[in-house]
Amino acid sequence: MKMAIKRGIVVAFGLALQILLTLSVYLFLGEHIAMISVFYGILGFLLVLGLIRNSKSYSYTLPWIIILLYYPLVGTLMYFIIGNNKHNSKVLKSIVQSEKDAKKYFVQNPKIRKEFKDNSRIRYLSDFSGYPVTKNNEVMYYPLGEDAFKAMLEELKKAEKFIFFEYFIVNQGTMWNAILEILEEKAKQGVDVRVMYDDLGCLPTLKKSYPKELEKKGIQCEVFNKLHPISGVIMNNRDHRKILVIDGKVAFSGGINIADEYININSPYGHWKDNGIKVVGDAVWNYTVLFLSLWNAFRKEDEDFTIFKYDFKDKVLENGYVVPYGESPLDSEITGEDIYLNIINQANHYVYIFTPYLIIDTDMINALSLAAKRGVDVRIVIPGIPDKKLVYTVSESYVESLVNSGVKVYKYTPGFVHAKVFVADGHIATVGTINLDYRSLYLHFECGTYLEDVACIKDIKRDLEDTIQKSHKITKEEAMPSLLKAVWQGILRLVAPLM
């Protein structure tokens, strides 16, 4: 923790220094105060027009619009340093190019394309988001992190060619130490082992020199979007993905990071309800390309991704549709939210949802409310014990309108829900890393696995039903906040997109 505090102070100092230097110039040119004010006023107004024109969500851009119009000097400084990273960050520019180059590896099988031509949900993923729809897979769903962890260790021990490992949080402890022991051994055997983790996610858990320690063990390591006191003060656009690919044959994803609380060892928030998913088959290729597209934004060492593709030949594992997909803040599609909205809007009987955070815009509120009003059984499970109290207060602010619309909201009594899952009508589901909040939907790099007519969907539904049985249903009376709390929630909702 001391290490994280030290790094955090350095980064905060760099940010403050940038702002103070700009303000100093502003004050030094005090005799031209009127001209400077006019300049910043015009610049702020132009930025607002750009935000309105290009907004993916007005709920997200509204706080920026208010700041830019009412406080143009401070607003423009904040926007260029924090809110406009993809236009001035070398890292993000490199990722844009790498993702563009990787698109050639996402090739849709034309035979499968003919099969789903009348399925709008599937067609959206293939035609607009650009992720190939696959069949020929086996999918295993794990209702707890500890279950997924055991399966991960088993498959890691079988690795012969490569291991690609990408997680938001890595914390040294029982879980990581067990994985690291295998990674070290595999690296000694000549297996290509690559580890990538997010710098902000691991700020409190790993020291700055940790990549060098891994490199000494023969493990290649990249730190995503490093925090830097001057050029890298970028709190947005983090790598929140959870991806493990082994030999191109097996892929793991889901909600769990690599830390002991995710497998219920020393969990600080009661029972940690999370999940994992394992995919064997043609869909593994999607996850392989997702990993390599980010990895090569930093190292640019793989000229041909296809050497990592495993040929499952004509072996048919299962005939349901499986589509691993990514969410990037750098393209025009809001894939994660669009998938969620499509599931809600097209549901006929039920939609069950796991989410640790419930900070949603008007599109999502309306979709959930309208589904409930037309008779769909909409159930949302949120934590009973929060990990972040301020964020939890914001989540609670959305419960009243949802409950009044007929949506059933449950608090998981034993502890904290970290899973991110949608399941609907017995044959549709998605499992991944995408929370129902602004950061996941619009700012972070995320991933998920869309499933349709796959056998494990019944296991996903059973998990939600079992969890609901252990949860408390929020009544209309409980959902109604006091006057002071409602005011506080309103303030937090206004600034939530900036948090």
Strand portion: 15-25%
The coarse overall form would be globular
Q: Give the % helix.
A: 40-55%
Distance, first to last CA: 21 Å
Which architecture name of the largest domain does CATH use?
Answer: 2-Layer Sandwich
CATH level-3 fold name of the largest domain: Endonuclease, Chain A
- Rg, Cα atoms, Å: 23 Å
Largest sheet: 8 strands, mixed
Overall number of domains: 3
Enumerate the strands of the largest sheet in spatial order, edge to edge or round the barrel: 9-16-15-14-10-11-12-17
Short characterization:
By secondary structure, this protein is an alpha/beta fold.
Describe this protein's structure.
It is a single chain. The chain is of the alpha/beta class. The chain folds into three domains: 2-83, no CATH class; 91-118 and 131-320, Endonuclease Chain A (Endonuclease, Chain A); 335-498, 2-Layer Sandwich (Endonuclease, Chain A), CATH 3.30.870. Helix content is 46%, strand content 18%. The chain has 20 helices and 17 strands. The strands form three sheets. An eight-stranded mixed β-sheet has the order 9-16-15-14-10-11-12-17, with helices on both faces. The model has no long low-confidence stretch (mean pLDDT 88).
